[in-house]
């Protein structure tokens, strides 16, 4: 794919331009050339290249001015730009370049490997950003569908009730009421998830810490979900190292963490599998991966479908659902783990995941103990 990406090289010196072109073409990029700022602006707008390599020292309109115009134009403002400066010690011009919106800088003489490495890394970032945009768009259309279809179920039931059609058969009425109730609850859950993520992203997540018994919170979540596990004949076990495990935390938020992890484990574990929840203390004397001191750890392990190595770093991203789940029909919006991660971090904690495709997955949440004794 990268082979067909187009890069616009801009330099007033013909030799430099040829050199740039050669370096980029050798790596399979298509190259457009401009020998002035003005030409760069025209080509950027008409051809919309994937990236611009822009020399700073040019007569008439220098690279900075060109950059300013590029960023001011709606059509060209999102094209990433690498600026080329003549002097590596010229910190001021590098800073100016960044403040005008450059993505990277390189100093002359250009090192081929460095140029290619920067070009590729920027193109990768841009690609990832576009993917998230696409996911968001897909998500929005899915959301409309996911909210509309349950609502029509509810309206259908209410219409029957309003017409008096349910009056004669009490057991049928009960059945309809149950399905409308269940559907409404699912809708509410979805709306709550969306609101949570929106709040979290606006930085408005509020954690009200109180001493809470983690065992009790987990017990509550397990109680609500054990029926789902039983339906799939999944053996669900809780292992506690202490009878009472007091932790400074927001009980509602931690409940969300446990509920999300457990419902994922149930969802992604085939019939007759096993899920184990473990609660134990863990201390870090030396700082390890940003963790130090006393923590309470919560493991949720399952013998489910697992997550591939490639997808593992992505699952905490919002709207992200791993591809391996294709085989196992499941519904979801890909928000659960985003919420888990943000809540854990808002408590000063962390979440980790280990997984092996086809074998199972283990999520570990660490929450600072926080209780002074
Ligand atoms: N225990 C697990 N085993 C295997 N895959 C998992 C597990 N937990 C999460 N995943 C993968 O990570 C993805 C993201 O999980 P997340 O909880 O964020 O979303 P979801 O469960 O698909 O939807 P939602 O939780 O919003 O209803 C899932 O779609 C799935 O592919
Ligand atoms: Mg989930």
Distance between the termini: 59 Å
Biggest sheet: strands side by side, in what order? 2-1-3-4-5
The helix tally amounts to: 9
Instruction: Indicate the percent of residues in helices.
Output: 40-55%
The second-level CATH architecture of the largest domain is 2-Layer Sandwich
What is the percentage of strand-forming residues? 15-25%
Please explain how this structure is put together.
It is a single chain. By secondary structure, the chain is α/β, with parallel strands linked by helices. The chain folds into 3 domains: 109 residues, Response regulator (Rossmann fold), CATH 3.40.50; 67 residues, Helix Hairpins (Orthogonal Bundle), CATH 1.10.287; 159 residues, Heat Shock Protein 90. 46% of the residues lie in helices and 22% in strands. The protein has 9 helices and 12 strands. The strands form 3 sheets. A 5-stranded parallel β-sheet has the order 2-1-3-4-5, with helices on both faces. Helix 5 packs antiparallel against helix 6. About 1% of the residues have low confidence. The structure holds adenosine-5'-triphosphate and magnesium ion. Magnesium ion binds next to helix 8.
